[in-house]
Design a protein that fits this description.
By secondary structure, the protein is an all-beta fold. It has two helices and 63 strands. It has a 16-stranded mixed β-sheet that branches. An eight-stranded mixed β-sheet has the order 3-61-58-52-43-40-38-36, with no helix packed on it. Strands 4, 7, 8, 12, 15 and 17 form a six-stranded antiparallel β-sheet that branches. The radius of gyration is 32 Å and the shape is globular. Mean pLDDT is 84; it is low at 1-28, 227-257 and 450-458.
Amino acid sequence: MKLSAPIALVLLAKFQNCCAKTAPRDLQEDAIIFQNYDDGFAKGDQGDKVGTPCFTDGRWVSFVENSSSAEPDYMNIATTKWHSGGYRMACMDRGSHTNWQCWAACQPTPYPNFLEWGYLIFEAKVSGVFDSICQPSIGLTKKYPQYQSNVITLNGAYVDGGSLSDTEWKTVVIPTSDFTTEQWTDVKGVKDIHFRNCGTGYSVNPTYQVRSLKLTGMPPDIQVAPVTLSPTKFPTPAPTTPLPTRMPTSVPSFVPTDDYWPVWETSVDDHTQENPDKTCFVNQDRLNIASASDADAEYFTIQTDKWAGGGILFGCQLKDSNYNCIESCFGWDGLKPDWSEKGYLTFLAKIEGDFTETCQPTISLTGGGWPRSSSNKIQLGDIYVDQGYLVSYEWRRVMIPVDDLKTSDWNLNSLYAMHFNSCGEEHDGGQPKYKISAVAVTNTAIDLISSPPSSSPSEYVSDNPLLATHRFYHTNWYPLVRADREPSGNMWYVAENNSWPANVFSHTLSRSATVHIPQGQTVVYSGADSIIYDKIVVEGSLTIQPISSDVSLTAGTILVEEGGELNILTDESSSFTVAVHIDGALDHSIDPEEQMIGIVSLGGNLNIVGNDVGNVMLRLAQTVTSGSQTVELHAESANLQIGNEIILPDTQTGLPVGHWDFPNNVNYVDQTESCVISNIDASLATSVITCESPLQYDHTAGSHAGHVTRSITVKTSPNSDDRGHILHTGVGKFHINNTRIEQFGRTTTDMIDSTVMSPNPDLKFGQDGLTQQMVVSHFGTNQIARYALHAHHSMVEGIFDGNAILYSPRDGCVAHDSRVHITKNVIVGADGTGIFLEDGTG
């Protein structure tokens, strides 16, 4: 979602991201999921039906149109012993759009957050054979990771009258909170609604008819009755079809021993033995999984993406009309393997990717029949791996006790697949790339180079901490900033006795002094010295505020650490101002991702609050003509003062739509211009202001000028090598109000080209892994996320109110996965967008 214009104004608009406890929507606002036949098909980005059906399995689900009847249309879902069916709420076609954008979806907003509404309701009939175990039921699945919701049995308090019928439509009302689980607490990102089968133990499985499916905050009243097993038919015996058998084939490519079973050894194992075109890889086409070889091993490569991992499929992949298996992967006999009695899973591996505390290579299994169960997820490190971790440049052995994969719900019988997992959409860096060789299960442990910890583990030995370059905070790596890391010639000055360090005033060399406000120190700065500080590091409290004169401060970076507090304030009763200038140069040797230069809060409290200026948008009472030096404004402009600046908008008419394409429109002349007020005549019902200089262009009556003078200015100095940015992440207060932010932001409208870096796997600095030496694999030319004003995964509600944000090379203000109130801001000259909301901010 983005807003774009030479001047962007947002009045009383709140933007907040979804969270685990989401307030239900307005009780009158329903979200229709399936109401009529057309709702069964995806809609294009213009609302046109594109023909792609919105069901989870087209073999068992159909949409029925009652065109000749007053009865509503409905879905018919005939489940089988192997398959459930239902409605898909996903993006159905991303076409050839760049950036993986959706252009055909089953809902106006795919993957909805069910907790935004209080209830899921629908009408239903059901037929089948039911007993105390087999009952009609419903469940949800998540987009990614693919969590399963609680399964809701459709009887009792959920159904009008207590049970469904095969002859009468019954209303079903399910509180959306009843779908939550420990893993999936927010019911956010719903991909599918499943009307469930009863499994292979029943020859007759439920057939559902469902209509009027929607989310609502105002559920209808239903009559609750005791649970009955309805319809009241007796179950038929379990099916007597024999177990699937595999058609005769050539001799398998391995001969299992009593304690070692190869799973994947060579490229022959890429596919079923019966058909070389039938893959044995999960997501083979999507991820282009392929086998290869080097001097040491044959292997396959899985480059995961943020939406999907890959892996190995097990057991039968195709059956004939008699349900006999005719194409099979491991164990090659048409049956799903049973590892409940096996000892160890082992393989060789190499790994690449941008790994963090929250992104590590992992493996898991799925299986256990339908619905599928998931194993524990094992991180490929520590006691499971040679030397404790995987690397990209040599093969290392992985050895996982099968018992470590088991859960309380699944003992690893009837395996479906082995998964090498991605790190998901939340990870901004490179996703894991696995190279895997010699996959097997065995009952005999293979010694690793580093043995598992004993009851008396050896002492953890750290490398020299001065070799570390970065520390991890919240979602990103940031350069280490400490006194022992200052470049040669730089000085570190520490505040004492709650005072700005006095000895710093004798420092004469620009960009070489750092002031440190340690924890426990509360410092007020009200000066106007001429020093250009390299850094100001705030772990305690720093307030920049006038007392008896204007305040100015110049620094390359002001860094607010977690628990620290930076206040930049002015007094409503005073005319004194604050000017903070950013003047510095990026050092790519220690800061390759360009986190520094500007005001950066890593979980600290950042509070910049200037004086309220009243109306920030001023309506022109008369058209201003070129050459004029006066502007007549409506009376709401009373707060203007001599010396204030207003920005008059471009009001050209008759331009083609393409004139907004600034980078490519060489003929367009921007007629936005500035007026610095030299006189104000407010004697009439309107205010007539005089500008210091004549205006160059016409400006139409009724348009709005932006008032951009504030008592606090944060600006990139014209002498600075690089532009500043304001970024807040993690915990801590983030209020930026009534502040002029000028010439801020470094990310441009050019194609994003970010630096790629990852921890050096050969060094270790702490068992928590939060301090690392970073190694750069690619130096970018246009680093993402260095915007003028940026809430970056901020965990505490923020406020951007009454600001003037002037001349940024991409976006004015950005809320990324953050809850921010954005109100009354004037944004001028943002080359990209005025206000940009990213990744779930809504």
